[in-house]
Amino acid sequence: xxxxxxxxxxxxxxxxxxxxxxxxxxxxxxxxxxxxxxxxxxxxxxxxxxxxxxxxxxxxxxxxxxxxxxxxxxxxxxxxxxxxxxxxxxxxxxxxxxxxxxxxxxxxxxxxxxxxxxxxxxxxxxxxxxxxxxxxxxxxxxxxxxxxxxxxxxxxxxxxxxxxxxxxxxxxxxxxxxxxxxxxxxxxxxxxxxxxxxxxxxxxxxxxxxxxxxxxxxxxxxxxxxxxxxxxxxxxxxxxxxxxxxxxxxxxxxxxxxxxxxxxxxxxxxxxxxxxxxxxxxxxxxxxxxxxxxxxxxxxxxxxxxxxxxxxxxxxxxxxxxxxxxxxxxxxxxxxxxxxxxxxxxxxxxxxxxxxxxxxxxxxxxxxxxxxxxxxxxxxxxxxxxxxxxxxxxxxxxxxxxxxxxxxxxxxxxxxxxxxxxxxxxxxxxxxxxxxxxxxxxxxxxxxxxxxxxxxxxxxxxxxxxxxxxxxxxxxxxxxxxxxxxxxxxxxxxxxxxxxxxxxxxxxxxxxxxxxxxxxxxxxxxxxxxxxxxxxxxxxxxxxxxxxxxxxxxxxxxxxxxxxxxxxxxxxxxxxxxxxxxxxxxxxxxxxxxxxxxxxxxxxxxxxxxxxxxxxxxxxxxxxxxxxxxxxxxxxxxxxxxxxxxxxxxxxxxxxxxxxxxxxxxxxxxxxxxxxxxxxxxxxxxxxxxxxxxxxxxxxxxxxxxxxxxxxxxxxxxxxxxxxxxxxxxxxxxxxxxxxxxxxxxxxxxxxxxxxxxxxxxxxxxxxxxxxxxxxxxxxxxxxxxxxxxxxxxxxxxxxxxxxxxxxxxxxxxxxxxxxxxxxxxxxxxxxxxxxxxxxxxxxxxxxxxxxxxxxxx
Length: 858
What we know:
- By secondary structure, this protein is mainly beta.
- The chain has a single domain, classed as Beta Barrel (Maltoporin, Chain A), CATH 2.40.170.20.
- 10% of the residues lie in helices and 47% in strands.
- Strand 5 (96-100) and strand 6 (103-104) form a beta hairpin.
- Residues 1-35 have low confidence and may be disordered.
């Protein structure tokens, strides 16, 4: 790939589009159109207030007014408005993966962007997906921001500014209803509490049954349902003219569905073996059936506290921050192991199969095609007496697939002290500071038997319990972070500014195993080897006296150098070089041993000898380093009615952390792997045009070209595109304001979004071995192999959505009618390919939604 040539061409296009617009102002002055200017947005992206058009960073900002007009309620709503930024929100509440310029947040690893709320860096991974209420401004920074924002900011930063407490008493109540039995309510109260003390409290509650139905249970509130309640408070004390304290606290509870996936096979050999094309279907053509007997449930409780103090001194300001976060979360759902007959012989599985099978009635079966699909299309569920012969699917209405239980709990403390120059007349501005964090995270992934006796919601259930555990990963991860950072900005002259930022991060990580050294329950036949029931964590095989703790430190210097040039009053240009860092870490102990046994050849007669996948997935993974070069321009034209911003970038990522999902006879396993080297380059542009007093038009475009350069774990993937990264994305919108009367204002906004085709794995059509190669050696229902997977049909199709909102606003009230995905576009939210399983797990997106909302202020 000729990266240099392509980057240079994109740069020419970018600067031509930006500089070419500089001829517009003269024409506009001749026309002398009496139209309103665009509102100037003040950015805090460099930790000091600046005009967003002068900040030498690719940053998109959305004001409170824009957020309201666009109907933004959750992060996915504003993410969709920004080119080259996308989001996946699938498995459970808060399990979001944000892609900024081709770099993805990774499940079970650290985030790829800094998430900052009112100047406080959030370390809780679920903070990002809380409901957005009482927001003053959102800024999305693209490109490595580690120099100022530190750990994990390899892809960018997202800054949230909430509304400040008022010095006068104010209140607001809001309520809304929508389809799918959706309801949303919130209330806000703010005002003075004492001399120089001001408070603000916001309470919000929302609920929805979701779009999809569990056909086995006959319930429309058991799949993608959600109930979310939060209380947020903010207190500002102006202790003196120079000292201000800002205290924030919040508590939220969320309950929702979890693991709402179907499976789509990617096994071309099965098409020939069984004469059925359904074994190699396009994931986009899948017809979803949710029929699990264990309705997925996810419950979270989150507490966040922070205190920020700002002290103004002669020549510099001092800012100190301390924060505490606590997350308690679990999820319970159906399992995947029925395809591998693990619980085939349990009494409950035998009982279920008598009535829950899709063998046609003419052949003595129950013919439940409504639960499994038509017979052999592709699933084959047979009655008792025909054991170890079917082709089962995951997440079924029978108990044959077992269950899974997970926990993601975290408690952390963090703090920062920062010194910032405040002499605005000086050509030299500077920032210096230190940061620390202590994070304890408990991660549980358990798999076990569904005996039809209910479920204990805990990590380990003994063999005599109602849902005994057969596979368990249970670890406590402890992280200590120490950082120091600084930045200088120097005005060389009236046109040129140079800035240099540098940060040093050190993260010490430890992991301790919490799994008891006991055997599996014996209900899963796949845990029995040579008549002996194995341990519930395979790592005990090599460590019979106990699994040792592990520890490792990761450190990195993160520089950023930026040159900015004021080409004219209307145009600012910049160039930057930056480095981002994401700490390495540990997979759950036992990951490597499990995968080696089932998928990698050892010569010891294990199933892996037949598969020989040659996986390299150790129990630890390396740090990720991102290096990026960017050129951009920001123009303001037509008497400040038109803003055009564009940028080109080239990014190199070393040891890009990538989430892999493994399903097999053991149940399921989640792991973080690394792509040794990845290159990404692209172009983006956004424009906002205030046509007249009433009409505004805005648009965005993002183009990305990516390539995997080296990947030792999946060497066949070299040359493929970066996973979960569409080549193109576009946004287009219009906003129309009309004064009906002196007391009534009409506001209409329509947003269109296009997202291009997307691969979700590094393998994108290359054939690799599957666990079916092992089952082919056993005889029975699976013919001899090879049975390689092929993900050429696992790419998500391009899709587009249209959202709209129309409101009428009075002096103290607003009523609005809104709709999202108005064209009812059916597209996939996520595809999770599992190569060694020989298929993908797919999750649908939200369909058309609409509703009415009312707000009143006092």
